[in-house]
Amino acid sequence: MLCAILVGTAGFKAHAAEVQVAVAANFTAPMKLIAQDFERDSGHKATLAFGATGQFYAQIRNGAPFAVLLAADDETPHRLEKEGFGIAGTRFTYATGRLVLWSRRPSFVDAQGEVLRNAPFNRIAIANPKLAPYGAAAMETLEKLGLRERILPKVVEGSNITQTFQFVASENAPLGFVALSQVFENGRIKEGSGWVVPTGMHAPIRQDAVLLNPGKDNPAALALLKYLQTEKARALIRSFGYEP
Fold first, then answer.
1. Which of 53, 190, 197, 230 has the fewest CB atoms found within 10 Å of its own CB?
2. Phi first, then psi: what are they for 205, rounded to 5°?
3. Are residues 173 and 129 in the same domain?
C-alpha cells in the first residue's frame, strides 16, 4: 500500500531531491501552486510537464524518465501498473474533474446548455476524445443529449484540454467543452458564461496518481504523493472546482 511505501518520508526536508512529474493538462493551474507549496514546505523540487494523458502513456512506455504521473483519468495509471511501468499499491485518486461548456462571451452559454440546440455557432472546441478524458466526457455528453451527429461537423479538436481552452479563449471557437478548473475561481466562473455539465451526463472523471518505476527510490517522488493527500493540498484542489 502507498502508506507503507511512504513510511519514513516525514523527515524528507533534510534530504532535498527533485522529481519529474507528468501532469494532465487540466490540472496545470492547481499543480503549479501545489509545486510551489511543496518545495517551500519540503525542500524538494517538482519539475512539471503538462500534456495529454494519452501522450504521456506512450512516452512512459517508451522510457520517458517521469517519476510520477498525475493523469486525467483512472484507467491509464491502472494500465501502467498492470503493465509493470507503475509501482503496485501506489495509485490513488487525487481529484475528480468537472466538465463545463464555456464561452468567453457573457450570456452566450445558458445555465442549462440549451445553446447546443438553439444557438447558431459554426465551431465548438472539444479535446481529442482518444487522448483526453475530458474530450471523451464531452462526446458522452453530446451522445446523452442526442446531439452527437448534429454537433460533430462543427467540432474543432484540441490535442489536449489546454489547447481546447485556448481555442475558446481566443474565440477561434465561440464555445467549447473545457475543464471547470480552467475557468473557475472563488466559487464561480470567472469570465464569460458556462454550463457546468451534470455529473450524470458522463462517466466520472476520476484523476489518479501513480508512482512510476523511475520514482521508486526517489524521496521527492514519494513525498509528493504524500503531499497531494494532505488537507492543505486537497483544499487548494477543491478551490479550482474539483470534487473531493
1. 190
2. -95, 75
3. yes
Per-residue pLDDT of 3-42, as tens digits, reads: 444 444 444 445 789 999 999 988 999 999 999 999 999 9
- The tens digit of pLDDT for each residue in 36-57 reads 999 999 999 999 999 888 899 9
Residue-number span of the structural domain to which 104 is assigned: 99-196
* Number of structural domains found in the chain: 2
Give me the phi and psi of 226, to 5 degrees please.
Answer: -65, -40
Strands 175-179, 99-103: pairing is: antiparallel
Parallel/antiparallel/unpaired status of strands 175-179 and 124-127:
parallel
Residue 95, phi then psi, degrees to nearest 5: -165, 155
Question: Which residues have C-beta within 8 Å of that of residue 212, sequence separation ≥ 6?
Answer: 60, 66, 67, 68, 69, 80, 85, 86, 87
Q: What pLDDT, in 10s, does the model give residues 197-231?
A: 999 999 999 999 999 999 999 999 999 999 999 99
